[in-house]
Amino acid sequence: MNELKKFNQTISIEVEVDAIANQLQAMFKDDANFSSLVVEAIIGRSLSRDTVLLAKLMSAMNGYSKEIGLWIGEKYPVKNLTDWGYWTPESIEKKDTVRGEVLSVTVVDINEHSDEPVKVHYDLPTLTGTRVAERWISLSHFSI
């Protein structure tokens, strides 16, 4: 079977929140106690604190799961990722960090439910060499 080309772009679609709530409600048994309270708690909290969750909830209810496409332990090139370090001879001389570009990272953990789902390690220049830095980053930094 041919693999589908990756478009690596997103679009926005408006959906009434009531439609998401009704679809979630329909997933409960008809006689489920407190199902309305559960739905209202999930939807209400999402509206007030995490509207991204509503999109993820709707995707899950429709059987769609975003594939990360990265592997733990593998090294990947990245773009638009910066960190503070001793990147230049001037910064070393002045003992003052500057923002520099990180070009590659090693994936050490993945949490597909997070907005920044990939935990990475990368080398960060110090005054005496390098150290391994660690942080969670979004998929937008990868060209996958």
Describe the overall structure.
With 144 residues, this protein is an alpha+beta fold. The protein folds into two domains: 17-61, no CATH class; 75-141. Helices cover 29% and strands 25% of the residues. The chain has helices at residues 17-26, 35-49, 51-61, 89-94, and strands spanning 75-77, 82-85, 98-101, 104-110, 118-126, 129-137. The longest helix has 15 residues, at 35-49. The protein is elongated.
Topology at a glance:
Blueprint: H1 17-26, H2 35-49, H3 51-61, E1 75-77, E2 82-85, H4 89-94, E3 98-101, E4 104-110, E5 118-126, E6 129-137
Antiparallel strand pairs: 1-4, 2-3, 4-5, 5-6
**How many discrete structural domains?**
2
Order of helices and strands: HHHEEHEEEE
Quick one: biggest sheet? 4 strands, antiparallel
* Share of helix, binned: 25-40%
Strands of the largest sheet, in order across it? 1-4-5-6
- Approximately how much beta-strand content do the residues carry? 25-35%
Broad shape: elongated
Decide which structural class fits the backbone: alpha+beta
If you average the pLDDT, what whole number results? 90
- Flag low-confidence runs: none
Number of strands: 6
